[in-house]
Amino acid sequence: MTAVAKKKLRVATVSLAGCFGCHMSILDIDERLIELLEHIEFDRSPLTDIKTCGPCDIGIVEGGLCNAENVHVLREFRQNCRILVAMGACAVGGGLPAQRNHLDIRDCLQTVYLTGMGVQRGFIPNDPELPLPLDKVHPLHDVVKIDYFLPGCPPSADAIWKFLTDLLAGRTPSLGHGLLHYD
After folding, report:
1. Could you give the CA distance from residue 170 to residue 183 in angstroms, rounded to a whole number?
2. In which order are the strands placed within the sheet that holds 148-150?
């Protein structure tokens, strides 16, 4: 009797307003990635350079929402992912990009483009190719339903490994003391 091959889960990832540190932590799983790839296949992801997202079992989002394009990408991503995971401090709570939330966006733009140090004859860009900035940086759950939160800045490779292997085994992910850190 032959064993029936178990269907691999489709996993997609996306990076919004953040530093890309969470994706680097995924790569830090190192040789365990080979074991992981026995159970999953990547769809859209900066790790695969696939730009569009088809229907997926698990979607992982790093980064918060700082502009209209981030919101559009997140909503489209949510529609294609059965389970959505907010990974990292930026996705969970806005993270470092949210430090601008106590400032007026007009003042930020004026300082960066018109009056900041080293600016000569500046102008605030107004091009349809540039996404419109939001007044505030938002965590993902302000816009879409999030199924799981994986905090950390960034989460360690061990935390991501534990989280994903729990999900793959059908368990609710549980990260004990020592797996979460904020460097």
Report:
1. 30
2. 40-42, 9-15, 56-62, 81-87, 148-150
Quick: pLDDT tens for 140-169: 999 999 999 999 999 999 999 999 999 999
Using one digit for the tens of pLDDT, what is the confidence trace for 86-113? 999 999 999 999 999 999 999 989 998 9
Residue 120's pLDDT is what?
A: 82
The ranges assigned to domains in the chain are: 9-100+133-168
113 φ, ψ (degrees, to nearest 5): -105, -20
Q: What are phi and psi of 26, to 5 degrees?
A: -60, -45
The distance from CA 167 to its chain's CA centroid, rounded to whole angstroms, is 17
In CATH, which of 3.40.640.10, 3.40.50.700, 1.10.4030.10, 3.40.50.10730 is domain 9-100+133-168? 3.40.50.700
